[in-house]
Amino acid sequence: MAERIVMRVGESLVAGPPMTAAEPEVAIGEMDGPMGTAFANLLGDQVKGHSRVLALMNTDVMVRPPTICVSKVTVKDSRYTSILMGTVQYAIARGVLDSVANGDIPKEKANDLGIICSVWLNPGIVDVEDLDHQALFDVHRKATAQAIHKAMNNQPSIDWLLENQDKVVHKYFEKGLKGE
């Protein structure tokens, strides 16, 4: 049996065509521990504008490990809701399954683990007239799988972070320094 996974955390940023960037943050852990408590609290404590939904393959086909999607953006627009709880929700579900298929999540743990996925979808997406749903799907699927990969492999490692802390500069900090 695979080792116990109390809680792992990861993130990813994948850019794509305008307004399609994905920046998921995930927490993964055994449902009989703190992850299960957090998961149940999120699912049962809905907040207006920040609905929590399960990652679904279709309207009644939940992915495993069970994954709850939490919007980082306050949802105010029905088109935004349709994109978030359609294309993006499906992409997250597929990214989770990709993580099982590639071995980042042990298949034998698929019923024991839970995933919380904080989802960022650009609010400007509602103004994109010819939205490429396939590109949006591909970006969010890839970002979800990458975030899970990083979480399950404890990346970046503390050694890498210590070695590179003076080489990595946050892009918005740089913009601030430049007065942008």
TrEMBL record:
Keyword Lyase: yes
Membrane-spanning segments: none
Keywords, alphabetical: Lyase
Domain Formaldehyde-activating enzyme: start-end pairs: 9-172
InterPro entries for the chain: HCHO-activating_enzyme (IPR014826), HCHO-activating_enzyme_sf (IPR037075), Ribosomal_Su5_D2-typ_SF (IPR020568)
NCBIfam families listed in its UniProt record: one_C_fae
Name the record gives this protein: Formaldehyde-activating enzyme
Organism this protein belongs to: Methyloligella solikamskensis
Record lineage: Bacteria, Pseudomonadati, Pseudomonadota, Alphaproteobacteria, Hyphomicrobiales
Gene that encodes the chain: fae
